[in-house]
Amino acid sequence: MPRVIVVGGPAGTGKTTQGELLAKNFNCPFIEGDALHPKENIDKMSRGEPLTDEDRWGWLKKLSQVASEKAIEDESKIAVVSCSMLKKSYRDFIKQNSIGENLTFRFVFLYTTFEELMKRVGSRKGHFMKSDMVKSQYDIMEIPKTNELLKNGGESASIDTTNKSPDVIEKEILSNLNS
Fold first, then answer.
1. Domains within the chain, CATH numbers bracketed
2. 6, 100, 126, 167 from 80: Cα distances, Å
3. pLDDT at 46 over 90
4. Which strand ranges, in their side-by-side order, compose the sheet holding 155-160?
5. Which helix (H) or strand (E) is 158 found in, with range?
6. pTM here?
7. Is 133 helix (H, G, I), strand (E, B) or coil?
């Protein structure tokens, strides 16, 4: 059965790093969700303007459909995608807008303290998401309860990344995915 693993959380939690590690582990495609944002969203965030729900719906739909296609087409029948998926409604929307039948979703939500996010994002170079945008993401994030069942059957786990190495975080994610 094809499966999409969505690795999310606010900027600076390690979504891309963990997504790449999981894709390597499962020998499957990795889709960088930020690469699917329309130019208007990137321009808006580059100006320091937070995205609204209306800005996100089209991006989330595209992300869901691209990840679904990759999972269906790939030999591994798995695709990993990174995406902030800050609210439960976004996670539900991703699942509801998938394509194909018998597709399962697993959502892995990474989080840490606001101070740690500021430190991590502040040290980035060349990314459109600047540290002044972190507060807007932090303020709206809804950390899923462990094994939260989402509408339409997706499962979600949340992992605190504070003071943990990428290897330790990866092991926690794999443990959650295998449970």
1. 3-177 (3.40.50.300)
2. 6, 16, 23, 17
3. no
4. 30-31, 78-82, 3-8, 104-111, 155-160, 148-149
5. strand 155-160
6. 0.90
7. helix
Tokens of 91: 């996670």
- Per the structure block, which two tokens stand in for 163? 């003071």
- Let me know how long the chain is: 179
Could you report the per-residue pLDDT of 82-136, keeping only the tens digit for each? 999 999 999 999 999 999 888 999 999 999 988 888 887 766 555 455 556 788 8
Kindly tell me if the per-residue pLDDT of 53 is higher than 60.
yes
The contacts of residue 163 (CB under 8 Å, 6+ apart) are none
Look up residue 96 and give its two tokens.
């509801």
Name 128's Cβ contacts closer than 8 Å, sequence gap at least 6: 34, 42, 45, 46
Residue 91 · residue 103 · CB < 8 Å: no
How is residue 149 written in tokens?
């069942």
Strand, coil or helix: what is 150? Answer: coil
Alpha helices in the chain (DSSP H): 15-26, 39-46, 53-73, 88-96, 114-122, 134-140, 166-177
Mean pLDDT over each residue of the chain, to the nearest integer: 88
Answer yes or no: is pLDDT of 31 > 80. Answer: yes
Spatial CB neighbours of 61, under 8 Å, sequence gap ≥ 6: 93, 97
Q: What is the pLDDT of residues 4-23, one digit of tens each?
A: 999 999 888 889 999 999 99
